[in-house]
Write a structure and sequence with these properties.
Number of strands: 9
Oligomer: single chain
Order of helices and strands: EHEHEHEHEHEEHEE
Bound molecules: glycinamide ribonucleotide
Largest sheet: 7 strands, mixed
Number of helices: 6
Radius of gyration: 16 Å
CATH architecture of the largest domain: 3-Layer(aba) Sandwich
Distance between the termini: 25 Å
Length: about 200
């Protein structure tokens, strides 16, 4: 699996993926890390693991499609076959999805379809959910939407703040993202309607 990882910020999931590769828990070759923001902290993790980085500022493009075309060009140049979104804050278009059919993956800090979009942890607290969690899914054209590869549940505690809940969810994100990517790399999954069969057992 030749991985391209797309980030916008902190990059802790990127770090979890690169660590899993270094520790031979994920059989993948990280080919390039692409950020749409110049100052993204996560670019440091790529440097630490000697993975090439490229910055493609979305503000340079008038249309989402032309931005995605530029991203696809970068990914192709680095011979990527699977794209992992790791805190990437742009909505993906058909241009990217059709370049890597069935091989664009996203992680979201909630049990989808609950609480898509920004601030999923705050949404769960505000709603009064007793359980939330993390979802790794194949990407389609809607935001935080598509066939589910892996989920992990995280209980919401009475004294949780957005920070404390986010931090427990993040532990699960870092555990489950490499597992889900390994399942995809193994090729043992198949789609039956919306269902991914052979995904990661839920916890
Ligand atoms: C993660 O919590 C990820 O699940 C979330 O952004 C954060 C990025 O953190 N993604 C979404 O909310 C997608 N809708 P990171 O840069 O440290 O990996």
């Amino acid at each position: 699996m030749n991985l391209g990882i797309l980030i916008s910020g902190r990059g802790s999931n990127l770090e979890a993926i690169l660590t899993a590769v270094a520790e031979h828990r994920l059989a993948a070759a990280p080919r390039v890390v692409v950020s749409n923001r110049r100052g993204a902290l996560g670019l440091r993790h790529a440097a630490k693991y000697d993975v090439p980085t490229e910055v493609v500022p979305h503000a340079d493009f008038a249309r989402r499609e032309s931005f995605d075309r530029a991203i696809v060009d970068v990914l192709r140049r680095h011979e990527v076959d699977t794209v992992a979104l790791a805190g990437f804050d742009r909505l993906i278009t058909r241009v990217l999805l059709e370049a890597f059919p069935g091989h664009v993956v996203n992680i979201h800090p909630a049990l989808l379809p609950a609480f898509p979009g920004l601030h999923a942890q705050r949404q769960a607290l505000d709603y009064g959910a007793r359980v939330t969690g993390v979802t790794v899914h194949l990407v389609d054209e809607q935001m935080d939407h598509g066939p589910i590869l892996a989920q992990a549940a995280v209980p919401v505690l009475d004294d949780d703040t957005e920070e404390s809940l986010s931090s427990r969810i993040l532990q699960q994100e870092h555990r489950i993202y490499p597992l889900a990517l390994q399942r995809l790399a193994d090729g043992g999954i198949h789609l039956e309607g919306r269902r991914v069969l052979g995904g990661v057992p839920s916890t």
